[in-house]
């Protein structure tokens, strides 16, 4: 793995870790907004569909999300 790939991977890992720590304290409204932003990132349609599904869970206040936020 060359330097560029290592730097890219490191950046993505740090971004993801920071994002996950912020999500535990985010409001439902901000979580829904983030799904719209996250939907623009992946190139595969299947990933975008999963993000849309997650947004639906936030919008319907799915009980499983409360469990995920506690951990």
Polypeptide structure, described:
- It is built from 4 helices and no strands.
- With about 70 residues, the chain is mostly helical.
- The longest helix has 21 residues, at about 5-25.
- The radius of gyration is 14 Å and the shape is globular.
- It starts with a helix and ends with a helix.
Summary keywords:
71 residues; 4 helices
Summarize this structure briefly:
This protein has 71 residues and is mainly alpha-helical. It has helices at 3-23, 28-38, 45-59, 63-70.
Strand content: under 5%
Label the structural class.
Answer: mainly alpha
Shape: globular
Sequence stretches where pLDDT stays below 50 over 5 or more residues: none
Distance from first to last alpha carbon: 34 Å
Our Rg estimate from Cα atoms comes to: 14 Å
Q: Number of helical segments?
A: 4
Mean pLDDT: 83
Q: How many DSSP E strands?
A: 0
Major beta-sheet overview: none
Helix content: over 70%
Pattern of helices and strands: HHHH
Oligomeric state of shown chains: single chain
List the helices and strands and how they pair.
Layout: H1 3-23, H2 28-38, H3 45-59, H4 63-70
Helix pairs in contact: 2-3
């Amino acid at each position: 793995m060359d330097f560029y790939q290592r730097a890219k991977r490191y950046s993505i890992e740090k971004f993801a870790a920071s994002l996950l720590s912020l999500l535990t304290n985010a409001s439902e409204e901000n979580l829904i907004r983030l799904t719209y932003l996250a939907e623009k990132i992946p190139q595969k349609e299947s990933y975008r569909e999963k993000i849309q599904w997650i947004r639906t869970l936030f919008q319907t206040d799915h009980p499983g999300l409360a469990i995920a936020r506690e951990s």
